[in-house]
Structures are given as C-alpha cells and as structure tokens.
Amino acid sequence: MDYLPMFAKLDGRKVLLVGGGDVALRKARLLLAAGSRLTLIAPELDAGFADVAGRFTHIPEAFRPEHLDGQLLAVAATDSLAVNALVYQSANQRGLFVNVVDDPARSSFIFPSIIDRSPIMVAVSSGGKAPVLVRLLRERLESLLPAHLGGLATLSGRIRERAKRALTTLVARRRFWERAYASNTLGGLIEKGEWEQAEAWLDDELTQSCQTAGEVVLVGAGPGDAGLLTLKGLQQIQQAEVVLYDQLVSPEILNLVRRDATLVSVGKKAGAHSVPQEETNRLLVEYAKAGQRVVRLKGGDPFMFGRGGEELQVLAEAGIPFSVVPGITAAAGATAYAGIPLTHRDFAQSATFITGHCQAEGSQPDWPALAAGNQTLVIYMGLMKSELIQQQLIAHGRAAETPISIIERGTTARQRTLVGRLEQLATLAAKAESPSLIVVGQVVRLHEQLAWFGERAEPAPLGLVKLA
Fold first, then answer.
1. Which CATH superfamily is domain 331-463 in?
2. Which CATH class is domain 149-209?
C-alpha cells in the first residue's frame, strides 16, 4: 500500500497553496470546501479566483520557504518545475505533508478522486499510476450511489441516540440500520424531500426492531465462480451474523462474507458426510431462536438437489421466519462455461436434471423416459453411480455412441471437461474428481467449437475415439 487512505479534518486549519492558474483554482475550491484557512502564494491570480474572493488570504509574491511556517500542509500547483521542487523540499524539511500536482514522486499525500454525498464521502486513488482508470471507476461509482445518500446519513444522525436507547445491543442496532438502509420506502421518501414522513417511518421500524426475533435466509451461492453470486445473495451474506455453509461453496465466495460473522461449516461431500442433516437443522433453529440473522449458504441453487426445501420445512415447523435467494445451478453454470448449450434446435428440444444420489429405499429413476433421444440429460452427483447410469441408459434405448461430457469443478479456475461416448462413461468417471456434472446428449458435440473458458476437452483415456 503506497498511501494510507484517510480523511483529514481541515476546518479552521492553515493550508498553503502555491500557484494562481486553473489547476490551483481547482485545488483552492476543494480546500475551501473542506473549511481550511487557505493562504495562496502567487504573483498573479487567474480571473476565476474572483468566484471565491474573500475566502482566502492572497500573498502576491513568489514562493519563499518561510511561507510554510505555521501551516499544516502545502500544495504546489504551478507550471514551474523549480518552484514545485522548492515547495516540496522546503515542506519535507519542516515535516509537513505536501502535494505537488501531477507529480506523485514529490508528494507525501495525494488528492483522490472524490464522490461527494456529504456527509458520505467516497475517495478513489491509484497513487498517480492510472488516473484515467480512476476516473472511470469514479463515474461508475457515481452511477451506483444515489443522490439521496447524504440525506439518509443526515437523518440517521438525528435518530442515532434514539436507536441506542431503544436497542441496547450492538447486534440489534446493526440489524435495524441494515434493514432500514435496504428499504426502498425510506429512500423514496428522502428523494421526495418528505423528511417528517421518513423520520416517522424510521421510528416505526425502530419499534418493530425491539420485537424482532431471528431469521434465516437460504442463499444459493452458484456453481463456484464468485462472479456468479447474485447481487441479492451478496447483500445477504454481508448482512448475516451467522453463515452455515456447504463444502461446495468456494473460498472466493466465503471471503465476501462480513468479517465479523460466525462461519459454521456443515459441508457434505460424497462419501464424507461431515455434518448430519439433522445437526444442520438443529443449528439453524438454535441460531435463529437466539435472535441471530442466519444465512444458510448452499452451492448452486438451494432448491436443486440441495435439500433446501427440507430445511425450510424444519424452520416453518419451528415458527422461524425465512426467505430464499435463488442461485445459478450447476447445470446452467458449468455447461455454459464448458460451451455446451442445454438445448439447441438441431440437437435437443428439452433438458432433464436428475441426481445420481438417491435414498437407499427411494424409487428408481424412470430409465425409459431418461433414455429418450432429442433431450439433454444432466446428472448431478453421478460419478459413483456412473456404471449403473451407463448400463441403464443403453439398456433402455439410448445409443451407446451418444456424446457425453463430465465437467469437473465447473466455472472455477480448475475446471476440466472430459468428453467421450455413453459407452465410455464409467471409464471417464474413474478419472474425474468430485464435484462433477455429467451431461448426456448430442449438445456435447458443440463443446469443441463453443468452449471459451480457457480450457478444451481432454483426450479420452485409453485411446478412445474422439467425437466427430
């Protein structure tokens, strides 16, 4: 980190600005807006300084080192390299912070690009290395931060003490503010300038917060790539106090969870059930009844072979409020990253998702229906049953030459795609690692042409024939 980001309170503090041109004028306006007692050193001033006349002290002479005496910091904004260098050297000798405009090597502090939503301030800087990139980032942030943000902060300050008295714990207050800030109602009232109604709305929310119990949000984390986490999913994991997560949730997504949240692994992997489902259910109820905001974070989509419905049934029976944030399921994410469309006019008119991991006493899949042509078959958790799947599909009429693919660790940097024929499924599965997704159907032929994610199909093992 080249510079420590910090916000300096300049109200009433002495600041020296050297220069009288357009650049100096921009810095003067900024420093005056911060409330500094500005002294400006320049033989002459541009006409634009008339707009801020009377708000600074002008010394109409060339810079001398003694001008720095008693100042908090200095800014050099002249077109003379010699003068700027003298300001820098003299300020350093006095232990003052100094900025030489457009010269990071001679600056002990820099002016960041600022998004002003006073009292909310956002600053972006590249340390002088990429000013155009910083400008683009600032423009993007400007579009993301609503104009009423400053008003929201001002209103929050007015009722902050009331919130402290009504909500005696830090957790309760934090939950109240997070819910309030996420409300479109409050933002709409402030945008329209309806301050009394906005304050009344906050008071009502404060009263309700005193009676609010815990809650659970079931969130789908997507297939692995953190960029596929939905915006609403991101908001929920950054507001959670407790996160119960599965093993398939990637470390990159876990890094996005708020830093003070309690992380509890309830992960499951084929052949290694680290936490029984009953224990996961018990933890969800226990944390919620303790008044915590709980996120149950699952890989993919929580309602797609993720037992999300079962967990919500437990919460419903316990009277615990819950909500659901869907995620991108592996069948959609992994196949897209592998360049395998689930449907295609020439190859498949439908897609069927099944799990290869069934309950011991559960009913068997409808193999005749699954073996039908003109459809894509996507099998979750099918590696261990790959030989059975291969035998049953062929036995019920699916051609042994049907293209198949196994997508390993889909959408992640370690994604690997194996391709072959249905009669080779068990052999390919023996070389794959969990988590993997099996795709059966003619759409697999498109992988070689459409794969875009930096990897291509690996050669089939044991000299197997590559797809035509």
1. Tetrapyrrole methylase, C-terminal domain (3.30.950.10)
2. mainly alpha
- CA dist., res. 48 & res. 40, Å (int): 14
**What fold characterizes domain 215-328?**
Cobalt-precorrin-4 Transmethylase; domain 1 (3.40.1010)
Taking the C-alpha atoms of residue 237 and residue 175, their distance in angstroms, rounded to an integer, is 13
CATH 3.30.950.10 residue ranges in the chain? 331-463
Classify domain 14-111 by CATH number. Answer: 3.40.50.720
For residue 185, give both structure tokens. Answer: 């109602």
**Dihedral of the alpha carbons of 8, 13, 19, 25, in degrees to the nearest 10:** 70
In which residue ranges of the chain is CATH 3.40.1010.10 found?
215-328
pTM metric for this prediction: 0.65
Which residues are documented as binding site for S-adenosyl-L-methionine?
223, 299-301, 329-330, 381, 410
What are the backbone dihedrals phi and psi of residue 243, each rounded to the nearest 5 degrees, phi first? -125, 115
Q: Mark the binding-site residues, compressed into ranges.
A: 22-23, 43-44, 223, 299-301, 329-330, 381, 410
CATH 1.10.8 intervals, the chain: 149-209
Residue 79 annotated as catalytic: no
pLDDT tens, per residue, the chain with 468 residues = 788 888 999 999 999 999 999 999 999 999 999 999 999 999 999 999 999 999 999 999 999 999 999 999 999 999 999 999 999 999 999 999 999 998 988 999 999 999 988 899 999 999 888 889 999 999 989 888 888 888 889 999 989 999 998 888 787 888 788 878 877 788 888 888 898 999 999 988 888 777 666 789 999 999 999 999 999 999 899 989 899 999 989 999 999 999 889 999 997 655 555 689 999 999 999 999 888 889 999 999 999 998 999 999 999 999 998 999 999 999 999 999 999 999 999 999 999 999 987 655 567 889 999 999 899 999 999 999 999 999 999 999 999 999 999 999 999 999 999 999 999 999 999 999 999 999 999 999 999 999 999 765 565 543 444 443
Question: How far is Cα 461 from Cα 20, in angstroms, rounded to an integer?
Answer: 74
Catalytic member of 246, 298, 431, 466: 246
Pick out the residues of the known binding site for NAD(+): 22-23, 43-44
Residues of the chain with CATH 3.40.50.720: 14-111
Residues 155/180, Cβ–Cβ less than 8 Å:
no
The yes-or-no answer on residue 246 being catalytic is yes
Sheet holding 403-408, edge to edge: 350-355, 375-380, 436-440, 403-408, 416-421
| Annotated catalytic residue within 14, 103, 203, 268 | 268
